Amino acid sequence: xxxxxxxxxxxxxxxxxxxxxxxxxxxxxxxxxxxxxxxxxxxxxxxxxxxxxxxxxxxxxxxxxxxxxxxxxxxxxxxxxxxxxxxxxxxxxxxxxxxxxxxxxxxxxxxxxxxxxxxxxxxxxxxxxxxxxxxxxxxxxxxxxxxxxxxxxxxxxxxxxxxxxxxxxxxxxxxxxxxxxxxxxxxxxxxxxxxxxxxxxxxxxxxxxxxxxxxxxxxxxxxxxxxxxxxxxxxxxxxxxxxxxxxxxxxxxxxxxxxxxxxxxxxxxxxxxxxxxxxxxxxxxxxxxxxxxxxxxxxxxxxxxxxxxxxxxxxxxxxxxxxxxxxxxxxxxxxxxxxxx
Length: 341
Known about the structure:
By secondary structure, the protein is α/β, with parallel strands linked by helices. It has 11 helices and 18 strands. It has 2 domains: 2-148 and 291-340, Medium-chain alcohol dehydrogenases, catalytic domain (Quinone Oxidoreductase, Chain A, domain 1); 154-286, Rossmann fold (3-Layer(aba) Sandwich).
C-alpha cells in the first residue's frame, strides 16, 4: 500500500510499504476513503530528529471495513466507519465515564498511520463507529471532523462548561479553534471573541458564530479583550498549544472563570500560582479530547445539515500530494488539507 512517512523535520514522503494485517482477533483492517493533515502533525514536522526508518503519520480517517478479527462484533466488511483518533475498548471504567483518552485497556493508544491507503485498527469494537448506509459523499468532510477536530473543539467548550449567556474567548484560528467557536455557539454562548489574525479563517469563525475578532497578540491582545469584556471572558478556550497562548489565556480570563486547553501543549512549565490562577479562583481544565464520547451527540446535526464543520477543509489533495500539503499548511496557505482516496 501507499503511505505517508516522516523522516525528520520537513521531510515527508509517500512510499510503498507492506499492507497491515490482523494481529489480534479484536482488530479490523479499514480501507481509508478520507483522511487529512492536522495542525498537531506540524509539531513533528518542525522538530522530529532525522531517522533512517520513516515514521508513519496521521490520526484522522473515514473508511470502509475490509476485514475483521473473529472477536469483532459491532462492524463488518463493507461498513463505512469513522474512528476516534485514539483507540480504546469503550468498556472500562474510564471509557464508561466518557474519558476514553484515559482508557485502562493495555492496548490503548493513539493512531499514527492514517495518511495511508489502509490501516489496522486495534480494539475495533470500541474504536470504530458505524455510520449510516447511503451517506451523501458531500457529507464526508464533515463526518471526518468527528475523528478529531470537531470533537476536540466541542471538548474545549464542554470542559469549560460553556452555557447560555456566557462570554467566551477562543485563542487560535486553526481548525480546532474555529470548531470551538461553533461548539460554543451550539452550547449557548452569547458573545464569542475569536483571537486570530488570518482573515480568511476568522471570517469562517464569524460564520460559525464569533461575534468579535481580535487580531492583536500578547499584552496588546490581552488589553483588547479585557476592554471588550469589561474585565475578561468567563470562559477561555485555548486551541494552540504554545506557551504564549497559555499566557494570553491567563491574561484574558475573568476572575472565577475557566481556561480550557485542548491545543497539544509544547511546554511543560507554566504559571499556576497565586498571581496567575489560584488567587483569582481560575479553573484550569481540558486535555486530549475523548472524541468517541461525543460522536452520538454531534452526528445528528452533521447528518441533517444543521452544521457544516467540514468547511475547515480548504484544500483537497491526493495521497501523493501530502508532502506539499504539509508545506502549505506550515506556510499558512492552507487551513486544513483533506486527503481524498
